[in-house]
Amino acid sequence: MECKRLEDAVTYQWGDTQNLTHHATVPLMASGKRFGLLNVGSPGKEHFTEKELTLLQSVAFQIGTAVERINLFEAQKQRAEYFAQLDELTRVLWKINNIRVLPEKVVQHIARHFQWPVISLFLIKNQQLRLESLFYKGEAVVTTKIDHKLSLTNAHVIKSALEQQNIALGQEKLAFLPDVREKNTWHAAAVPLILSDKPIGLLYVAQTTDNPLSETERDVLKALGDHLSLLIETIRLHEQKQEMLLVEERNRLARDLHDSVNQKLFSLSLMARGAKECLPTDPQLVGESLEEIQTLSKEALADMRSLIWQLRPANVEAGIMTTLKQYGQKIGLKINDQVEGIAQLPRRVEETLWRIGQEALNNIRKHARTNVATIKLTIDKKQIRLSIIDDGCGFNPHAVDGNGYSLGLTSMKERAEEAGGSIHIYSQENKGTRVHVSIPLKQDGGRETNED
Q1: Which residue has the higher pLDDT, 401 or 87?
Q2: Bridge-partner residues for 203, per DSSP?
Q3: Beta strand pairing status for 334-340 and 372-379?
């Protein structure tokens, strides 16, 4: 090939061309892809033979193959790095357990692990897609200052992602960015958050047009969208379960009020009326009635104290054993306590042990026909074990309510399982009851933590 650049160099005297006037040009190719061109020339040479061109073509193929191999290696290396970051990110995200703080924390955590300049999270509320959180220019943006409707008017990528329920790409002007003076076109990607074939939100990220999202980044986004979908659904289910537990707790308290305090107060009113009418004729009977009234009033007061303690939020700052012992004494039990080992327990474990222990002590006071209980707490590196024992009248665990567990015992079992532990209840009539709870402790040095 004649070379225009060589000709211009001679014409305009740009410098000595070393008698180069022609060159051969061979494409660098491999697997049908073109990576560039190979130019070869020699002083005074104006023609290349077929043999020379064949040799050059072979050399160019070798170079193209090497370039492709390097590109594939770099792509796989980048993919491994991205998915390692994704794995670390999802570990952090799955610690979030509050739907109200989730949007802000999601974009902040994603920004720490990936270098996308724009990260935003939309959630569908009241049949509308609302911008809940935004990371832009290296910091989180207060979304209440952003016109939510404006973000949807020209967002073709968002519309396409929701309609196709798949990741969508495109170049757009991100109208929802707070700096309205910037009219740059971005390379955007939208990932719908899908549950039961129904969109619940959308993760939206963007790069500058000179640095579009790679195939690996799109794969990471798709996986991240799946994780966020499951995370949101898990948190919502957990909150629904907590609401159901709250309703069950209220119903139980109402039933306890009716079965204990209400009936005792009603009996007190009847006995007081009878004592009043017997006062002129039978002073001895009045005295006996007053003694019975005093006994019933003490029992009603103990019942009310127990219910009030159950309504108060758990405060285990003094330690789980101290708290349980104080509670037992408040409801009229004599507590024998034994402790082996010491450790700083995660808040969730303490809360679980407190609720289980509270229910067990209540059962002793109401059903065991004894006022003495023993609490044993054993802590080692692997687990914590709580035992609550009484020598009362006992019961048949498999005959309670006809299904093996009463509501209270079922609640204790569910709480232990939620914390990853187990509970075993041993009881026989006239031989007392033993409640044993075992909850494992994490071994990686990181106790359970909850992001509120």
Answers
A1: 87
A2: 121, 191
A3: parallel
Q: What would the mean pLDDT of 281-308 be, rounded to a whole number?
A: 71
Q: Are 195 and 233 in contact (CB under 8 A)?
A: yes
pLDDT in tens, 187-208: 889 999 988 888 888 899 988 8
362: which residues sit within 8 A by CB, 6+ positions away?
306, 310, 331, 408
The pLDDT of 123-139, averaged and rounded, is 82
Tell me the pLDDT of the chain averaged across its residues: 80
Interval 99-115 mean pLDDT: 89
Cα separation, 327 vs 91, whole angstroms = 37
Question: Is residue 343 within 8 Å of 379, Cβ to Cβ?
Answer: yes
Poorest-pLDDT segment among 105-114, 136-145, 189-198? 136-145
DSSP label of 22: B
CB 173 within 8 A of CB 150: no
Distance CA 368, CA 328 (A): 14
User: Poorest-confidence range of 17-31, 102-116, 153-167, 399-413?
Assistant: 399-413
Two tokens at 193? 């958050």
Q: What is the C-alpha separation between 141 and 182, in angstroms, rounded?
A: 16
The token duo for 116 is 């996308």
Residues 221, 215: contact at Cβ < 8 Å?
A: no
- What is the pTM assigned to this prediction? 0.52
Contacts of 310 (CB under 8 A, 6+ apart): 249, 253, 358, 362
CA 201 to chain CA centroid, nearest Å: 16
- Cβ within 8 Å of residue 432, ≥6 positions away: 368, 389, 390, 391, 392, 394
Q: What share of the chain is helix, strand, coil (3-state, %, to 5)?
A: 50, 25, 30
Question: In sequence order, what are the residues at sequence separation of 6 or more whose Cβ sits closer than 8 angstroms to the Cβ of residue 228?
Answer: 93, 106, 121, 193, 201, 203
Report the alpha-carbon distance of residue 312 to residue 132 in Å, rounded.
34
Task: Give 23's contacts (C-beta < 8 A, 6+ positions apart).
Answer: 1, 3, 6, 39, 40, 41
Structure tokens at 235: 């948190």
Across 114-129, average pLDDT: 85
pLDDT band at 221 (very low <50, low <70, confident <90, very high): very high
Q: DSSP characters for 306-345? A: HHHHHHSPP--TT-HHHHHHHHHHHTT-EEEEEEE-----
Q: To which residue do tokens 């670390």 refer?
A: 88
Q: What percent of the chain has pLDDT over 90?
A: 19
Quick one: tokens of 182?
A: 């910037």
Q: Is there a contact between 346 and 449 (Cβ–Cβ < 8 Å)?
A: yes
